[in-house]
Amino acid sequence: MDIVVKGRKTEVPERFRKHVAEKLNLEKIQKLDGKVMSLDVEVSKEPNPRQADRCDRVEITLRSRGPVIRAEAAASDPYAALDLAAEKLDARLRKQHDKRFSRRGARRIPAAEVPDHVPGVATLNGAGASTAREEEQAVPTKKIGSLEVQGDGPLVVREKTHVAAPMTLDQALYEMELVGHDFYLFVDSETKEPSVVYRRHAYDYGVIHLRTDTMVTENHSPEAGGTLGG
Fold it and tell me: Which of 24, 57, 91, 196 has its CA 20 to 30 A from that of 166?
């Protein structure tokens, strides 16, 4: 297997290609994932002078028989960006390796030990009846936002408010890749609508625009619970 290094709208010097080969140790990678089929490194440059501290971006894509593992990073020079991306790739490879190892080493749990290993499993009291109803009556109910929750969950509600200037779709895609998320919420500078870009397959992306329909709002009854129709 070879490492394919390519530039997007920028030239990749031979010195950097050699550095990639030294930094991404194929023998080490194949120990963590023996089914690796390809390893691609893409280098790009952001021309915006306001982003000089992260103008060089490196994206590493590892394809194997399992899920695709991708790591990207941006810095003031391509060598620093490669170092950061390589660290992320190594961490994700180890996580995937440990996950596979734990599945292989999993053992069957005796019936007597099930309540100790499986949270929320049904247990019986001295009379042979389920204790779930007894515990349910003892669990207090509290209000989180506009919702009533029993005990500690399993519902977790967290609200965040971000202040951000409207941006173009291209800028939103760039910001999403920088943070390493699969989606990014933004306000479209052209339509002024709340929008979401998200990763689909490989390098394909999708975008969802949210538009208020006054007719739907007027005809929507309060009992409907504010559900958005598909």
Answer: 57
Query: Where are the extended beta strands (E) located within the chain?
Result: 3-8, 36-45, 56-64, 69-75, 141-144, 147-150, 183-187, 194-199, 205-209
Question: 191 pLDDT exceeds 70?
Answer: yes
Dist. CA 130–CA 128, nearest whole Å: 7
Long-range contacts of 11-15 (CB under 8 A, 24+ apart): 12/43
Q: Please provide the DSSP assignment of 58-122 as one string.
A: EEEEEEESS--EEEEEEESSHHHHHHHHHHHHHHHHHHHHHHHHHHHT--PPPGGGHHHHSTT--
How many alpha carbons lie under 13 Å from residue 124 in its C-beta half-sphere?
5
Structure tokens at 189: 């500078």
- Of 2-6, 112-116, 170-174, give the lowest mean pLDDT range: 112-116
